[in-house]
Amino acid sequence: MNLYLELRRHDKLSTKRSPFYEQSQIAQFFVYLAAAFYVCYLIFFGVLFAFLMQDEAVEPYHIINKGLFIFFIIDFLMRFGFQQLPTQEMKPYMLLPIKRNSVIDVLLIRSALSYFNLFWLFFFVPFAILTVAKFYGMWGVFTYCFGIWLLAVANNYWYQLCKLLLGEKIWWFLLPVAFWGGIIGLAFLDDSPIYDFHMNLGEGFITSNILTFLGVLALIAVLFLINRWLIGKLMYAEMNKVADTQVKHVREYKFFDRFGEIGEYMRLELKMLTRNKVSRQQMISISCIVIMFSLLIGFSDVYDGAFQDFLIIYNFVIFGTMFLSMLMSFEGNYIDGLMSRKESIYTLLRAKYYIYSVAMFIPTLFMLPAVFTGKVSILTCLAWQLFTNGAVFCCFFQLAVYNNRTIPMNEKMTNRNYAGSGKQNIIAFVAMGVPILIGFALKGLVGETWTALIVMLVGIAFIATSNLWIMNVYRRFMKRRYINMEGFRDSRQK
């Protein structure tokens, strides 16, 4: 316990003493604002479901318990976009008489106590008060919600295990796909045991069944030990630089030869994205979020209406958010080499714009099931793709001027966690919020078709003038180049 408190204190002091601390304070405001929005949303649905299910033949909590696996599938996918792996800068502690496993235990305990694991309680607590309390009292509500929290902790460790493995080999995505896909497949069978299992699990929580709690605790213990072993192995590899010293499959991307110098930088960008663990993990996280939202749009009626429009826009904008919000931060690892050549930054920015513009076809492809089911028109998808390629990317590219923190490419467990700067978060908030406001306002005024056409024309205008605003970004970057290079060097992993 003393080690946990001491490491927590060190982490807070490290954050406060960072040269970027004051710049990142505004990020807290947006984090709390978004959290408050989702908390209100969950409380509303918890109360709503409790009243809507009162007229059913069985009690509402039985119905919800049967579908517990649905909540935790969504929870699992959400973690890829919103929860980072627990990290700790380990090198200073290697000089002290502290066992490495003790530090890892602290990281895992800190992960279990994360606020993210309390997320679904804002749904289940009001729901349980309205449905469980009248039969089992407040003690039943407490044990039920405590059981849900334990399942969230188990899901947290399961997510961490999958994300760690995915960071090593992309083919590990088959593990969560097989697990959750198997559960979903069994749910479609006649007289499926999945529903009864989860209903009995929830009933065990409500009735304080000791065997139910022991079973979940045993699952948490197993996942804890597996994560402990795997994190220890990865930390050793990161600190000693022993992970993959040879490239087994060399991809030349010869297709880019025809584009000259820009093609070389496009090749550099693709290699950076596919060969490095951190950027590769980001691509996986983005794909999971977009797939989840696309499936919700295409095959669920719960999110029809205004929230569906929000998800459609969010599917496209999130691609820019995840990558371009850290524009030039990966390049901070080798910024000195880039600055040694005249106008190499300008060429790099153009190459990035072309690569990510082409990548915007990915969310469009993921949206095709929603198009085939008639929930979304192909015109709407193309309109928001072009708007993101133009106006949203123009907004995000301004961050190339202000981002001056190096993000390690492969250190996931032993890196420093820097909060986003104030300007970074403001630009990201505007780039995500303004398209949603524009979409809602235009749809209310001129309808869906004209909204798509107007949005498409705006996007095309920004795309047509992309060379102009990229040049403007480059010139402003060069005016700040010494400030930025100093920041990149100071934040570079030693």
CA radius of gyration: 24 Å
What is the CA-CA span between the terminal residues?
A: 29 Å
Query: Counting H and I runs of at least 4 residues, what is the number of helices?
Result: 22
Please trace the helix and strand order, writing H or E for each element.
HHHHHHHHHHHHHHHHHHHHHH
How many strands?
A: 0
Please describe the topology of this protein:
Blueprint: H1 2-17, H2 25-52, H3 60-66, H4 68-82, H5 100-112, H6 121-131, H7 133-168, H8 174-187, H9 193-206, H10 210-240, H11 260-275, H12 277-299, H13 306-324, H14 335-338, H15 344-359, H16 361-366, H17 368-372, H18 378-397, H19 399-402, H20 422-464, H21 466-479, H22 481-490
Helix pairs in contact: 2-6, 2-20, 3-9, 4-7, 4-12, 5-10, 6-7, 7-9, 7-10, 7-12, 11-12, 11-15, 12-13, 13-18, 13-20, 15-18, 15-21, 18-20
